[in-house]
Amino acid sequence: MRFHKYHALGNDYIVLDPSDFPAWPPGPTPGQIRAICHRNFGVGSDGILWGPLPSAQSQFGLRIFNPDGSEAEKSGNGLRIFSRYLWDRGLVTTQPFSVETPGGAVQVLIHPGGKNITVDMGRVSFQSERIPVAGPGREVINERIQILDREFTFCAATIGNPHCVIVLPAVDEALAGHYGPHLETHPLFPRKINVQFLRVIDRSNIQIEIWERGAGYTLASGSSSSASAAVAHRLGLIDCDVTVHMPGGQIGIAIGPDYAVRMTGTVNKVADGVMDPELFLPAG
Hints:
Elements: E1 2-8, E2 11-16, H1 30-37, E3 48-53, E4 60-65, E5 71-72, H2 76-88, E6 97-101, E7 104-110, E8 116-123, E9 143-147, E10 150-158, E11 162-167, H3 173-184, E12 194-202, E13 205-212, E14 216-218, H4 222-234, E15 241-246, E16 249-255, E17 260-266, E18 268-274
Parallel strand pairs: 2-3, 4-6, 11-12, 13-15
Antiparallel strand pairs: 1-2, 1-18, 3-4, 4-5, 6-7, 7-8, 8-17, 9-10, 10-11, 12-13, 13-14, 15-16, 16-17
């Protein structure tokens, strides 16, 4: 049972090629996902990338699983990692190429050397019915939400997966860890939500702390960077080109017409390995 591990600014994923797992159609079970991703009892990761898969509209298809066993619609870092895996395997023969996820298809360009990768992530929408956010159809901009002892002003957005962005004068890991889980599961968000706490540094730089749906506190996120930059631009706080600063490193975001987002960031290969079937047995 071969696996391939990469990280994108500390956000690590395991790539599992379906051709190596003929007994696992149509993919790993939630229990298998949780076992593989566990930091103590498994290989350890922020998620699993299951692909390449057949696709009717793209060269490659991809499914993305969170470490709690749930499935994600899209992941910017996951897409960069999967693209690097395709490049490492020699499966990419044209540039750019396309990858289809449940959250939509994207265009990918791998720069010379393979470490820097650009993804056209698609268009950001702030419409409640698309994100989704409960209530009447509307743009979800500067609304109020009560979480524990604090009321926040938030904006919501989707780039194929849902995001809640909160702009504050200061952000840190403790803030994300304390309020993130309660925002993720708030009834206002029927499919749960990814959460970003955002600080504007200047017109070209923002800082975010991230709580990811199904994964928890995360060092970096491509889709979070995309959504956060789009929200900050929508609020008039930044220009079209911005560097997103996260604990794991930096991602470049370019915002085009109609909030089309182009993301550029690095990927590092960690390991190729083989999982033993004993990994899936009870401990002890």
